[in-house]
Amino acid sequence: MSPEEAEAATRAGALLIDIRSEVQRERDGSVPGAREVARNVFEWRCDPSSNWNDAEIVGEPGRQLIVMCNEGYQSSLAAVTLQRFGFGDATDVIGGFQAWRAAGLAVVRAR
Question: What is the pLDDT of residues 48-100, one digit of tens each?
Fold first, then answer.
C-alpha cells in the first residue's frame, strides 16, 4: 500500500512494523507509533507459535499488520512471511520509509 494508505490504516487500528536497522532509524528518524522489530528476529517475534513472539504483534487477531523497511524491498518478503503465519491481510509500504518521508508523513527525529 502507499505510504498515505498505510498511515490511514494505522489511524484505523493497523499496526505498522518497522524492520529497518537501528542505524537507519538513528540516521533518518522513526515513524511515531510504529513497532520496531529488527529484521534478524522478525520471524521469532511474529510467529504466533514462537516462545519469543511479540504480544503487540500476535496478540490481536484480525488486526492488520503493515511492514515497512527502508525502500520497500525487504518488507515485501516480510509481509509474505506474515501471511504464511496466518495474517492474511498483511502487507507492506510501497517505497518503504523513504517514500513515507517523501510523502511528508510524520517522522520523529533521533535525538
Answer: 999 999 999 999 889 999 999 999 999 999 999 999 999 999 999 999 999 99
- Cα 26–Cα 14–Cα 43 angle in degrees, nearest 5: 65
Q: Which domains does the chain have, with CATH numbers?
A: 3-102 (3.40.250.10)
Q: Kind of pairing, strands 65-68 and 35-36? A: unpaired
d(CA 89, CA 45): 18
Strand extents, DSSP E, the chain: 15-18, 35-36, 65-68, 91-92
Here the cell at position 34 is: 510504529
Cell of 38: 529488527
Contact 110, 27 (CB under 8 A): yes
Distance between CA atoms of residues 40 and 8, nearest Å = 28
For the entire predicted model, the pTM comes to: 0.96
Cα atoms in the 13 Å half-sphere on the side-chain side of 85: 25
Backbone angles phi, psi at 92, to 5 degrees: -140, 170
